[in-house]
Structures are given as C-alpha cells and as structure tokens.
Amino acid sequence: MSTYSHSKIEAFRQCPRKFYYKYIAKVELEDAPEQIATFMGSRAHDCLEYLYERVGKGIVPTPEALKERFDAAWKEQWTKDIVIHDREMTGADYQKLGWRCVEQYYRRFHPFDQAVVVGLEQMIRFPLDDAEKYGMVGYIDRLAKTADGIWQIHDYKTNSRLPTQQDMDANPQLAYYEIGVRRRWKGVKRVELVWHFLQFDHSIVSTRTPEQLKSLKACAIATIKDIERRDQEENGFPTSEGPLCAYCDYEEVCPARKHLYQVRVMPENKLTKEPAVKLVDRWAKLES
Predict the structure, then answer these.
(1) Do residues 233 and 239 lie in contact, with contact meaning Cβ atoms separated by under 8 Å?
(2) Which of 93, 97, 187, 195 has minimal CB crowding within 10 Å?
(3) At 119, phi and psi to the nearest 5?
(4) Are strands 134-145 and 116-127 parallel, antiparallel or unpaired?
(5) If DSSP codes are grouped into helix, strand and coil, which group holds residue 152?
(6) Whole-number pLDDT of residue 68
(7) Separation CA 180–CA 163 (nearest Å)
(8) Is 250 strand, coil or helix?
(9) How far apart are CA 133 and CA 198, in angstroms?
(10) What is the rounded distance in angstroms from the CA atom of residue 162 to the CA atom of residue 196?
(11) Model-level pTM?
C-alpha cells in the first residue's frame, strides 16, 4: 500500500518539483537553523501534551508548575543558532509570547474536564480505498471523546495569523484524520475538528459531511495516482512558481530560483564579478 501524509500530498500540489526534491531524489541540504516560530510552537505543544498527560492521571498541574516546566524546556532546548527575523523581538520576548499562549489556553479550559483523552500525539494510519492500495498516515495532537459521545480531533497552532471559519472548513488535514478515526473505532457518530489558535485565545470548530469525506478521499487518491503515473525523474515534476517559493528549502537547487538564492548568499566582492551582474552594470552605465 502506498502511504502518504497530508504534508506530502500538499507539497506536490504546491509544487511538483519540491515534492521531487524532498520525497524522490531526497536531496540532502545543509542543516538549516531552526526558525523561532517553529521553536516556540514546539515548546507550546510539548507543554500542552504534558498537561493532558497529567490530567489523564487525575492530576491538574498548577499554572506555576506548568510555567516552571515551560521555562525549563525553553532554556534546555534553546540554541544561539535559532533564527529571529523580527529585529525588534528577542528570544526572551518569544519565550513570554509562547508562555502567554499556554497560559491563555490553561485559563480558558481549566479544569480540563470537557472530554476524556483518547490519545496524545496519536498516530493514525488508514487506507483511503476499499482495495487498500492507497493509504494515509498522520499524528493527532489530541484525540478526545466527550460525555455525550462526540469525538474531537484537536490541533494546536501558534500562527501569527487568525484564519476564518471558511478557511478551516476547507482545510483537509484534520478531515483526513477523521476518516482514520471512523475506520479505526466503529460506531463513531459525530466528529468535531478543533483548531486552537493559541496566540489569539481562539478555537475554530468544523465538521464534515459523509459526502465531503468521500470527495476528500477521491481527491487524495487522484493526486496520488498523478504522482505515481509520472516519470520518476526530475523532468516529470515541473516547477510551479508562486509566493511560497521564497520560503522553500530547495530554492538553492531549483532551476527557477537558484540564481536568486546565489545572488542572495554570494559575498559582494564575488557578486560584482558575475557575468550577468557585470552585464547589468554595463547596461545601467550606458543607459545613464
């Protein structure tokens, strides 16, 4: 069974060439330094996972104890190589922001008795078709079940942008997991997809109809078939340029972007000697 993830499918839809570099050629890149947004998100996730582990054992940590754990983990995991793009922010500022995300969540949901935890970082693996030719795998931040039988798939986000209800109603990731939950646990009636946007102390809840889930599976299978019918060489996966190219890990090897990457990282004394740069400089001189 060919097994895919939400991120793998979305990588192909975003740019087939990126998919090729990451999943087929498996291009090795220099270890890029961690971004502060990723680091902060990981610390918040870890803290909330610990919180619900304790709750599952009948223990609700105090805010003070939770903050002590958050700060200790931040200090232990922090390195000087973590990249901060906002020059007006420091690591300490992001530490405060990360804790604020956790604290707001704590105060809103305390004493955390809204549902019983079924799993934390729950791996879910399931087929997309009856023949079990195509499969999906993913991890659920928190899977829970309420007293009235509603299953909830929770996901924590530390995004600096708050999406709309319409955005999340169209988001496929947790809907994929719903397919897996319904297949793994029989008799599931209602499932809620719950995103917690921690910076905004706001949650968005979405549901899917059976027809929507059926369509989602069909679209995923169609994408997988498109991937697998292609010539598994680089030319079979053309570049799809867009706004996200500037953030792509493979910019330095992509034929559509590597010249921009080289210019960005090249020392000034070498840049001025490049033939293309010399040609532009000559043109500018003649124009003036």
Answers:
(1) no
(2) 187
(3) -165, 150
(4) antiparallel
(5) strand
(6) 98
(7) 25
(8) coil
(9) 38
(10) 10
(11) 0.87
Nearest CA-CA partner of 124 in 173, 167, 51: 173
How crowded is residue 273: how many other Cβ atoms within 10 Å of its Cβ? Answer: 9
Q: Where are the domains of the chain?
A: 2-27+114-229, 36-109, 243-287
pLDDT at 48: 98
Token reading at 109: 């949901």
- Phi and psi for 112 in degrees, rounded to 5? 65, 40
Instruction: Please tell me the predicted confidence (pLDDT) of residue 277.
Output: 59
- Alpha helix ranges (H) inside the chain: 6-14, 16-19, 36-56, 63-77, 91-109, 165-169, 173-184, 210-229, 258-265, 268-271, 275-287
- Over residues 215-250, the pLDDT tens digits come to 999 999 999 999 999 988 888 999 999 888 887 888
User: How far apart are alpha carbons 31 and 10 in whole angstroms?
Assistant: 23
Tokens of 152: 């909830």
Do the bridges between strand 151-157 and strand 134-145 make them parallel or antiparallel, or are there none, so unpaired? antiparallel
For residues 138 and 148, is the Cβ–Cβ distance under 8 A? no
> Which residues partner with 206 through β-bridges?
193
DSSP-assigned letter for residue 7: H
